[in-house]
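Table S4 entry, mannan endo-1,6-alpha-mannosidase.
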Amino acid sequence: MFGSLIDYWYYTGDSTYNEVVSEALLFQTGSENDFMPPNQTKSEGNDDQAFWGMAAMSAAEVKFPNPPDDQPQWLALAQAVFNSQAARWDNTSCAGGLKWQIFTFNTGYNYKNSISNGAFFNMASRLGYYTQNQTYFEWADRMWDWVEGVGLMSTSYAVFDGTDDTLNCTQQNHIQWTYNAGVYLLGASVMWNQTNGTTQALWETRIRGIITASNVFFQNNVMYEVACEPQGNCDTDQQSFKAYLSRWMAASTKVAPFVSDLVKSYLQTSAQAAAKSCSGGSDGVTCGTKWTAQAWDSTYGVGQQMNALEVIQGLLIDQVSGPVSNTTGGISVGNPSAGTGGDTNPGAPTGQITTGDKAGAGILTAVILVALLGGAWYVDVDTEDFLD
């Protein structure tokens, strides 16, 4: 959610919500400044922690106002999440990868899912881009190879939900979610940007493959959550997944320009449909779940607001600059050993790639804050203005 509000500032320049966004992010950092706060640590998974880390990474990339000097900085927070997760690389089953859950007592501990591993891949590629530390890129390559090798991504680039490590990851759960495709798409686009020759050509093949496989998430170019929308049984988290695919499709165009022609029609048509869905409730601007309905479907929630916000504001992507790095104007201070307790942990990107453990925080934690956006700002906009 806070990533959506960072994007809102990035696209519009409206700083109205910046203070509350910064306060909310910093409140969840925890004593080790790695987004493992006491109020959430025992119940969260690698994916939860990673969403906070990716929000911090976005803040660094778009030069979101820095926290006070006595507070952890955006880049260092993202590095802390990465380091704590690199230390959890699990060679005890499936020849590697990250488990969904961190603690043995949580349901899903024996599940290695695509979003946890994809978010790590996403962070690794973006940290490599920002810092030019090659070890991040090595981790990104390692993770991609593992995901493909274990069958979480098909030969046609469909991304499946996860796999049971008690079966040594020999069977996959073939459910597909929008955000899984998106998280790998942006990471792959960053890797394309940072490579050349045959390696870059390989990343382009992968990018095109993910986008082609993502056709399953569109009806007449309108995005929908194929695994739950038709049955009307999307849970709270799943209600927000379209926001992430929308965000990462748009963001990918800034680092891999050829992506623009491949996703533009998806985003434009989806944005128009999303705007039509934001016509419900007593305020007349409440957003629904099913954009394919071309009208409000009588559902509402934080996820629905996020989805519409991201796909519509993403149409402004050509009006903003791309992500910065340490050498192209970045202003966020990093710490390569963040998240390691100050020691040179094997997981810290200082050379060799190895293992260890720690914990995370939730995707939709402070849901009340999204009401600040309401939904009204974009529903009043003539969508056609963005489609030229």
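The chain is about 45% helix and 5% strand.
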